Amino acid sequence: MAAALSDYAPRAKDAHILDEKQVHGPPEKKQKIEETNIDPMTMNDEDDELPDMTDEEMALYGRQVKESGGFDVDNFTHSFAFGRIEPISEPWSDSRKKRFGDYSKEAIEKYNTEQKKNFKFKEVVKVNTKVVQGVDYYITFKAEDASTGVIQTFITLIRIKPISKQ
């Protein structure tokens, strides 16, 4: 039985400023894997199975996770690997846009308090997700320094965990 939405609570980790090239990696290093329109969440037992990731794809994915902390990985949904971090494709529904924006605002508020800064949330750039005992959202977003007008790129990891009922 699926848990009700109220059985889950967000847990925000710190927001961090990133240099743009750290988020996206140098273009010459990044290899693109051809994207497909297969959505593993809509497959059923009658659908063909997805092939496992190749050794080359697994190595590339491992490098991307190591270099970006999970915030910058290619779309490998044409293949299968359990517990993989995957991009959430746009366009997002209005409720998803709001949720990702709210998580980003919470993270930037925490960053501002801890670092004595005054950044204002601007926009969500991209979101990756991993589903294992809850959901992890790897959110990349932009915020503007209210005192200088400089826009910085931030990342935050939001962990949605089931709330234990004791």
Task: Provide the descriptors you would attach to this structure in a database record.
166 residues; alpha+beta; six-stranded antiparallel sheet; 28% strand; disordered N terminus
Walk me through this protein's architecture.
This protein is an alpha+beta fold. Helix content is 25%, strand content 28%. Strands 1, 2, 3, 4, 5 and 6 form a six-stranded antiparallel β-sheet that branches. The radius of gyration is 17 Å and the shape is globular. The model is unreliable at 1-13 and 18-47 (pLDDT under 50).
Condensed summary:
The protein has three helices and six strands, in the order ββααβαβββ.
Protein structure class:
alpha+beta
- Cα-based radius of gyration, to the nearest Å: 17 Å
Query: In which range does the helix fraction lie?
Result: 10-25%
Number of strands: 6
Written as H for each helix and E for each strand, in order along the chain, the element string is: EEHHEHEEE
Helix count equals 3
Bulk shape: globular
Largest pleated sheet: 6 strands, antiparallel
> Which runs of at least 5 residues are low in confidence (pLDDT < 50)?
1-13, 18-47
How much of the residues is beta strand, in percent?
A: 25-35%
Overall average residue pLDDT = 76
Report the end-to-end length measured between terminal Cα atoms.
Answer: 19 Å
